[in-house]
Input
Amino acid sequence: MTIQHPSPDRVRFGVNYVPSAGWFYSWLDFSADAVRRDFEDLAGLGLDHVRVFPIWPWIQPNRSLIRRRGIDELLELIDIAAEFDLDVAVDLLQGHLSSYDFLPSWVLTWHRRSLFTDPAVREGVIRYVDRVSRAASSRSNVFAITLGNEVNNLWPANPTDAAGSSGWAAELLRTVSAAAPYVLGLYSLYDAAWYDPEHPFHPVDAAELGDLTTVHSWVFNGVSTLDGPLGQATVSHADYLVELAAATAGDPARPVWLQEIGAPRPDVPDADAPAFVRRTLDLVLANPALWGVTWWCSHDLDRSLADFPEREYDLGLFTTAHRRKPLAVELAAVITEQRAAGRTARQQGRRGTAADRPGLLCEVDLRERPDRRREVAPGSAFHSEWVRQRGSGPLAIVPATRAADPKYLTTRGIGRLIEPTERS
Output
């Protein structure tokens, strides 16, 4: 699918939908009324989309059985979103959600075999991906289909290597493209793919496979310990990850979707959450590669549900009683301001991009040397230098291997290059 390059005057804003009643277990007792009540909460924030998560083993409990009712309920949810003028992105293989893994019994116990490498499992997954993609794309408000939520969290319980994970994703994305040619086909990974040198899911796949790059920015990965909940390293992490993704892509115009970002406790205390929203978005919205922002998540998790990590219970923009929280108020304000600025830019015939940014040279080529990922991870010398200089304004990352390519630099809006040791 061909998509236009983004600009900050038309960034998309959405939310990852977590049902207020029953978490994702609510798919077992689907209630259209409950979904409609949740989407009514979201409609007032200025959001334009929701990302939704059908649970894979409840739709495909056997390799040769795909439940029609499960698909019908997903379609009903998509139709309810349309009532509130919300577009929908559908994730397929759940897979991993909020510290729990949901896998069908036909890849477990006596049938234990890797999701990524076993041929019989691959055949079953392809059937599921094809069926759900065809159904979802029948709705005009569906704009994206992602293979699953952070599928690399399912390793090492499902063994694979770099070639196996890459081939798996490429084949499934071809399946999505054939079944749903007019929607975005996407690949979703958590940030070990960018920072862990031993991880068998590589940056080049995140930056090449699918129609755009998705990144998930979570400051509980250690970045919040560098300088606190509102420190520069913490509030710039989303921008850093978007920029790292943009720098890794072969196509300098490839967009990046900030598909997940949230304000997790205790890393970001409640009192600091609105300021975290404001400062984080102010920084990342200046990035010309940014395609969209999707907040995690819509609603808090009911504390009657046991055994979740503590931070998972209070990530919502709304409480389970549908009360709008202060960080939701701040998010809505940012969206309103951004849309107004976009209208002004369009009326004046200009793009709101950060043109002629400086670019910080990076000696680590993540495409060719994923074994050097630790050298760009939070807290590394390179990251620390980028954070320091980002305090003076928008700052690109430029692989040293592309520093002499003027077309590349121009496409990415980079006006001059900075050596990592240079002091401004």
Notes: Residues 4-8 have pLDDT under 50 and may be disordered. The CA atoms of residues 360 and 397 lie 5 Å apart. The radius of gyration is 21 Å.
